[in-house]
Protein backbone atom coordinates (compact mmCIF):
# COMPACT_ATOMS: atom_id res chain seq x y z
CA UNK A 1 0.00 0.00 0.00
CA UNK A 2 1.45 3.33 -1.11
CA UNK A 3 -0.04 6.76 -0.35
CA UNK A 4 0.89 10.06 -1.98
CA UNK A 5 0.22 13.42 -0.30
CA UNK A 6 0.57 16.58 -2.39
CA UNK A 7 0.62 20.27 -1.37
CA UNK A 8 1.77 19.50 2.15
CA UNK A 9 2.09 22.41 4.54
CA UNK A 10 4.34 22.98 7.54
CA UNK A 11 4.43 19.86 9.71
CA UNK A 12 2.47 17.65 7.27
CA UNK A 13 5.61 15.95 5.95
CA UNK A 14 6.22 14.50 9.40
CA UNK A 15 2.62 14.01 10.51
CA UNK A 16 1.19 11.75 7.82
CA UNK A 17 3.98 9.10 7.74
CA UNK A 18 3.82 8.95 11.53
CA UNK A 19 0.03 8.68 11.65
CA UNK A 20 -0.16 6.01 8.94
CA UNK A 21 2.19 3.35 10.26
CA UNK A 22 2.40 0.34 7.96
CA UNK A 23 1.67 2.39 4.84
CA UNK A 24 4.41 3.66 2.57
CA UNK A 25 3.82 7.42 2.52
CA UNK A 26 5.31 9.88 0.04
CA UNK A 27 4.61 13.51 0.99
CA UNK A 28 5.53 16.58 -1.02
CA UNK A 29 4.91 20.32 -0.88
CA UNK A 30 4.37 20.33 -4.67
CA UNK A 31 1.08 19.96 -6.51
CA UNK A 32 0.27 16.77 -8.43
CA UNK A 33 1.06 18.31 -11.81
CA UNK A 34 4.51 19.38 -10.61
CA UNK A 35 5.71 15.84 -9.89
CA UNK A 36 5.91 12.41 -11.55
CA UNK A 37 3.72 10.26 -9.28
CA UNK A 38 4.67 6.67 -8.58
CA UNK A 39 2.34 4.42 -10.66
CA UNK A 40 2.18 2.08 -7.65
CA UNK A 41 0.23 4.71 -5.68
CA UNK A 42 -3.14 3.41 -4.48
CA UNK A 43 -4.12 6.26 -2.12
CA UNK A 44 -3.90 9.89 -3.22
CA UNK A 45 -4.43 12.84 -0.88
CA UNK A 46 -4.60 16.26 -2.54
CA UNK A 47 -5.64 19.84 -1.96
CA UNK A 48 -7.40 22.28 -4.28
CA UNK A 49 -4.40 23.10 -6.46
CA UNK A 50 -3.91 19.48 -7.52
CA UNK A 51 -6.51 18.75 -10.21
CA UNK A 52 -7.22 15.05 -10.60
CA UNK A 53 -8.77 14.26 -13.96
CA UNK A 54 -8.72 11.38 -16.40
CA UNK A 55 -5.08 11.99 -17.38
CA UNK A 56 -3.88 11.89 -13.77
CA UNK A 57 -5.92 8.77 -13.03
CA UNK A 58 -4.48 7.03 -16.08
CA UNK A 59 -1.00 7.72 -14.67
CA UNK A 60 -2.00 5.92 -11.48
CA UNK A 61 -3.44 2.55 -12.60
CA UNK A 62 -3.55 1.17 -9.04
CA UNK A 63 -5.32 4.19 -7.55
CA UNK A 64 -8.31 3.21 -5.39
CA UNK A 65 -8.87 6.21 -3.09
CA UNK A 66 -8.67 9.97 -3.56
CA UNK A 67 -9.15 11.93 -0.36
CA UNK A 68 -9.07 15.68 -0.75
CA UNK A 69 -8.04 17.72 2.25
CA UNK A 70 -10.74 20.27 1.50
CA UNK A 71 -14.50 20.66 1.59
CA UNK A 72 -14.78 21.49 -2.10
CA UNK A 73 -14.06 18.77 -4.66
CA UNK A 74 -14.49 20.61 -7.96
CA UNK A 75 -10.82 19.84 -8.75
CA UNK A 76 -11.59 16.11 -9.00
CA UNK A 77 -13.34 14.41 -11.92
CA UNK A 78 -15.94 12.43 -9.98
CA UNK A 79 -17.49 10.80 -13.04
CA UNK A 80 -14.19 9.35 -14.25
CA UNK A 81 -13.31 8.26 -10.72
CA UNK A 82 -16.60 6.38 -10.40
CA UNK A 83 -16.10 4.69 -13.77
CA UNK A 84 -12.68 3.50 -12.63
CA UNK A 85 -13.97 2.31 -9.26
CA UNK A 86 -12.03 4.98 -7.36
CA UNK A 87 -13.61 6.23 -4.13
CA UNK A 88 -13.44 9.98 -3.56
CA UNK A 89 -13.71 11.47 -0.07
CA UNK A 90 -13.61 15.01 1.27
CA UNK A 91 -13.70 16.79 4.60
CA UNK A 92 -17.16 18.38 4.75
CA UNK A 93 -16.53 20.52 7.82
CA UNK A 94 -13.05 21.12 9.14
CA UNK A 95 -13.37 24.88 9.30
CA UNK A 96 -16.76 26.44 8.67
CA UNK A 97 -16.21 28.86 11.55
CA UNK A 98 -12.58 29.35 10.50
CA UNK A 99 -13.50 30.37 6.95
CA UNK A 100 -16.45 32.43 8.16
CA UNK A 101 -14.09 34.41 10.43
CA UNK A 102 -11.88 35.24 7.44
CA UNK A 103 -14.94 36.23 5.42
CA UNK A 104 -15.99 38.71 8.11
CA UNK A 105 -12.38 39.89 8.38
CA UNK A 106 -12.31 40.73 4.66
CA UNK A 107 -15.69 42.45 4.87
CA UNK A 108 -14.57 44.61 7.79
CA UNK A 109 -11.32 45.44 6.01
CA UNK A 110 -12.88 46.59 2.75
CA UNK A 111 -15.71 48.53 4.38
CA UNK A 112 -13.12 50.43 6.41
CA UNK A 113 -10.99 51.03 3.30
CA UNK A 114 -7.91 49.11 4.46
CA UNK A 115 -6.79 48.25 0.89
CA UNK A 116 -6.69 51.95 -0.04
CA UNK A 117 -4.88 52.77 3.21
CA UNK A 118 -1.81 50.84 2.11
CA UNK A 119 -0.58 53.42 -0.41
CA UNK A 120 -0.30 56.52 1.82
CA UNK A 121 1.29 54.59 4.66
CA UNK A 122 3.83 52.89 2.38
CA UNK A 123 4.72 56.28 0.91
CA UNK A 124 5.24 57.77 4.36
CA UNK A 125 2.01 59.82 4.47
CA UNK A 126 -0.08 59.55 7.64
CA UNK A 127 -3.26 60.84 6.02
CA UNK A 128 -7.02 60.15 6.06
CA UNK A 129 -7.55 61.50 2.55
CA UNK A 130 -9.79 59.20 0.52
CA UNK A 131 -10.22 56.72 3.37
CA UNK A 132 -13.76 57.46 4.59
CA UNK A 133 -15.30 54.10 5.44
CA UNK A 134 -18.70 52.71 6.38
CA UNK A 135 -20.29 51.25 9.51
CA UNK A 136 -21.41 47.63 9.23
CA UNK A 137 -24.25 48.09 11.72
CA UNK A 138 -27.62 48.36 10.03
CA UNK A 139 -26.40 47.28 6.59
CA UNK A 140 -27.81 44.32 4.64
CA UNK A 141 -25.50 41.40 3.90
CA UNK A 142 -26.50 39.02 1.13
CA UNK A 143 -25.11 35.51 1.58
CA UNK A 144 -24.94 33.41 -1.60
CA UNK A 145 -24.90 29.81 -0.37
CA UNK A 146 -26.09 29.22 3.18
CA UNK A 147 -24.52 25.87 3.98
CA UNK A 148 -22.09 25.31 6.83
CA UNK A 149 -19.84 28.24 5.94
CA UNK A 150 -22.51 30.65 4.71
CA UNK A 151 -24.63 29.94 7.77
CA UNK A 152 -21.70 30.78 10.05
CA UNK A 153 -21.02 33.99 8.08
CA UNK A 154 -24.65 35.04 8.57
CA UNK A 155 -24.55 34.22 12.28
CA UNK A 156 -21.40 36.27 12.83
CA UNK A 157 -22.75 39.12 10.70
CA UNK A 158 -25.91 39.32 12.80
CA UNK A 159 -23.74 39.68 15.89
CA UNK A 160 -22.27 42.81 14.26
CA UNK A 161 -25.71 44.26 13.62
CA UNK A 162 -26.17 43.39 9.97
CA UNK A 163 -29.46 42.24 8.49
CA UNK A 164 -28.86 39.00 6.60
CA UNK A 165 -30.62 37.76 3.50
CA UNK A 166 -29.69 34.59 1.66
CA UNK A 167 -30.00 32.75 -1.61
CA UNK A 168 -29.69 28.97 -1.75
CA UNK A 169 -31.43 26.31 -3.89
CA UNK A 170 -31.91 24.37 -0.63
CA UNK A 171 -32.77 26.97 2.03
CA UNK A 172 -32.38 26.01 5.67
CA UNK A 173 -34.75 27.81 8.06
CA UNK A 174 -32.99 30.05 10.57
CA UNK A 175 -29.70 30.37 8.71
CA UNK A 176 -30.45 33.96 7.61
CA UNK A 177 -33.06 36.53 8.52
CA UNK A 178 -34.79 36.03 5.17
CA UNK A 179 -34.39 33.91 2.04
CA UNK A 180 -34.86 35.73 -1.27
CA UNK A 181 -34.27 35.13 -4.96
CA UNK A 182 -30.77 35.77 -6.32
CA UNK A 183 -32.07 38.82 -8.19
CA UNK A 184 -33.57 40.26 -5.00
CA UNK A 185 -30.38 39.57 -3.07
CA UNK A 186 -28.29 41.40 -5.67
CA UNK A 187 -30.55 44.46 -5.63
CA UNK A 188 -31.09 44.70 -1.86
CA UNK A 189 -27.62 43.96 -0.46
CA UNK A 190 -25.12 46.56 0.71
CA UNK A 191 -22.52 43.79 0.84
CA UNK A 192 -22.44 40.31 -0.68
CA UNK A 193 -20.57 37.24 0.56
CA UNK A 194 -19.98 34.35 -1.87
CA UNK A 195 -20.09 31.09 0.09
CA UNK A 196 -21.41 28.52 -2.40
CA UNK A 197 -19.56 25.60 -4.01
CA UNK A 198 -18.22 25.76 -7.56
CA UNK A 199 -20.06 23.55 -10.04
CA UNK A 200 -21.36 23.93 -13.60
CA UNK A 201 -24.39 25.87 -12.32
CA UNK A 202 -22.39 28.36 -10.24
CA UNK A 203 -19.44 28.98 -12.59
CA UNK A 204 -19.51 32.70 -13.46
CA UNK A 205 -22.93 33.00 -11.80
CA UNK A 206 -21.91 36.56 -10.86
CA UNK A 207 -21.23 38.26 -14.21
CA UNK A 208 -21.89 41.53 -15.99
CA UNK A 209 -25.68 41.28 -15.77
CA UNK A 210 -25.57 40.41 -12.08
CA UNK A 211 -23.27 43.34 -11.30
CA UNK A 212 -25.69 45.69 -13.08
CA UNK A 213 -28.46 44.53 -10.72
CA UNK A 214 -26.43 45.37 -7.60
CA UNK A 215 -26.55 48.63 -5.68
CA UNK A 216 -23.94 51.13 -6.74
CA UNK A 217 -21.17 51.07 -4.13
CA UNK A 218 -21.72 47.44 -3.11
CA UNK A 219 -19.00 45.47 -1.30
CA UNK A 220 -18.11 41.94 -2.49
CA UNK A 221 -16.34 39.19 -0.55
CA UNK A 222 -15.45 35.79 -2.03
CA UNK A 223 -13.95 33.02 0.09
CA UNK A 224 -15.48 30.18 -1.95
CA UNK A 225 -14.00 29.68 -5.44
CA UNK A 226 -12.65 32.29 -7.82
CA UNK A 227 -14.56 31.11 -10.89
CA UNK A 228 -17.95 31.76 -9.27
CA UNK A 229 -17.35 35.42 -10.16
CA UNK A 230 -16.51 36.48 -13.71
CA UNK A 231 -13.19 38.22 -13.00
CA UNK A 232 -13.40 40.47 -16.04
CA UNK A 233 -16.87 41.64 -15.03
CA UNK A 234 -15.69 42.29 -11.47
CA UNK A 235 -12.76 44.36 -12.69
CA UNK A 236 -15.08 46.43 -14.90
CA UNK A 237 -17.48 46.95 -11.99
CA UNK A 238 -14.61 48.11 -9.78
CA UNK A 239 -13.27 50.47 -12.43
CA UNK A 240 -16.71 52.03 -12.91
CA UNK A 241 -17.24 52.38 -9.18
CA UNK A 242 -20.33 50.18 -9.22
CA UNK A 243 -18.49 47.88 -6.82
CA UNK A 244 -16.86 49.95 -4.09
CA UNK A 245 -14.39 47.33 -2.85
CA UNK A 246 -13.78 43.60 -3.09
CA UNK A 247 -12.20 41.17 -0.65
CA UNK A 248 -10.96 38.06 -2.45
CA UNK A 249 -9.41 34.99 -0.86
CA UNK A 250 -9.78 33.11 -4.14
CA UNK A 251 -9.02 33.85 -7.80
CA UNK A 252 -9.73 32.15 -11.11
CA UNK A 253 -6.98 29.73 -12.12
CA UNK A 254 -5.07 29.96 -8.89
CA UNK A 255 -2.78 27.24 -10.20
CA UNK A 256 -1.34 29.78 -12.63
CA UNK A 257 -1.00 32.46 -9.97
CA UNK A 258 0.94 30.07 -7.72
CA UNK A 259 3.71 29.94 -10.32
CA UNK A 260 4.66 33.52 -9.48
CA UNK A 261 4.73 36.61 -11.68
CA UNK A 262 8.43 36.26 -12.52
CA UNK A 263 8.06 32.66 -13.69
CA UNK A 264 4.90 33.18 -15.75
CA UNK A 265 6.90 34.44 -18.73
CA UNK A 266 8.54 31.03 -18.97
CA UNK A 267 5.24 29.16 -18.77
CA UNK A 268 3.41 28.20 -21.97
CA UNK A 269 -0.10 29.61 -21.65
CA UNK A 270 -3.10 29.76 -23.92
CA UNK A 271 -4.56 33.16 -24.82
CA UNK A 272 -7.41 32.51 -22.40
CA UNK A 273 -4.98 31.74 -19.59
CA UNK A 274 -2.98 34.88 -20.36
CA UNK A 275 -6.15 36.95 -20.15
CA UNK A 276 -7.12 35.45 -16.78
CA UNK A 277 -3.63 36.03 -15.37
CA UNK A 278 -3.66 39.64 -16.60
CA UNK A 279 -6.99 40.31 -14.90
CA UNK A 280 -5.87 38.61 -11.69
CA UNK A 281 -2.72 40.72 -11.53
CA UNK A 282 -4.79 43.87 -12.02
CA UNK A 283 -7.14 42.81 -9.23
CA UNK A 284 -4.20 42.07 -6.92
CA UNK A 285 -2.80 45.57 -7.48
CA UNK A 286 -6.12 47.42 -7.44
CA UNK A 287 -6.38 50.02 -4.64
CA UNK A 288 -9.94 48.92 -3.83
CA UNK A 289 -9.26 45.20 -3.70
CA UNK A 290 -7.83 43.16 -0.85
CA UNK A 291 -6.52 39.78 -2.01
CA UNK A 292 -5.37 37.02 0.34
CA UNK A 293 -3.76 33.80 -0.99
CA UNK A 294 -6.56 31.28 -0.35
CA UNK A 295 -5.79 31.33 3.36
CA UNK A 296 -9.28 31.46 4.90
CA UNK A 297 -8.91 27.85 6.03
CA UNK A 298 -5.34 28.19 7.26
CA UNK A 299 -5.29 28.19 11.07
CA UNK A 300 -3.55 25.85 13.45
CA UNK A 301 -6.85 24.42 14.69
CA UNK A 302 -8.34 23.86 11.23
CA UNK A 303 -5.12 22.29 9.98
CA UNK A 304 -5.23 19.74 12.79
CA UNK A 305 -8.85 18.90 12.00
CA UNK A 306 -7.85 18.40 8.35
CA UNK A 307 -5.06 16.03 9.36
CA UNK A 308 -7.21 14.00 11.73
CA UNK A 309 -10.12 13.59 9.31
CA UNK A 310 -7.82 12.77 6.39
CA UNK A 311 -6.28 9.91 8.37
CA UNK A 312 -9.80 8.77 9.35
CA UNK A 313 -10.81 8.74 5.68
CA UNK A 314 -7.84 6.57 4.71
CA UNK A 315 -8.08 4.12 7.61
CA UNK A 316 -11.85 3.70 7.17
CA UNK A 317 -11.36 2.96 3.48
CA UNK A 318 -8.69 0.36 4.24
CA UNK A 319 -11.14 -1.30 6.66
CA UNK A 320 -13.67 -1.55 3.83
CA UNK A 321 -15.98 1.08 5.34
CA UNK A 322 -15.26 4.34 3.49
CA UNK A 323 -16.62 7.54 5.01
CA UNK A 324 -17.32 11.05 3.68
CA UNK A 325 -17.68 9.67 0.14
CA UNK A 326 -18.73 12.26 -2.46
CA UNK A 327 -19.02 10.14 -5.65
CA UNK A 328 -21.66 7.62 -4.65
Describe the protein's architecture and organization.
This protein has 328 residues and is α/β, with parallel strands linked by helices. 37% of the residues lie in helices and 15% in strands. Helix 4 packs across helix 6 (148-159). The protein is globular. The protein has helices at 12-19, 54-59, 78-83, 96-111, 114-122, 148-159, 182-188, 208-213, 231-240, 254-257, 261-264, 271-285, 300-318; strands spanning 2-5, 24-27, 43-46, 65-68, 87-89, 140-144, 163-167, 178-179, 191-194, 218-222, 243-248, 289-291. It has a 7-stranded parallel beta sheet, sandwiched between helices. A 5-stranded parallel beta sheet has the order 2-1-3-4-5. The chain has 2 domains: 2-94 and 300-318, Rossmann fold (3-Layer(aba) Sandwich), CATH 3.40.50; 96-291, 3-Layer(aba) Sandwich (Rossmann fold).
Give a brief outline of the structure.
The protein is α/β, with parallel strands linked by helices and 328 residues long.
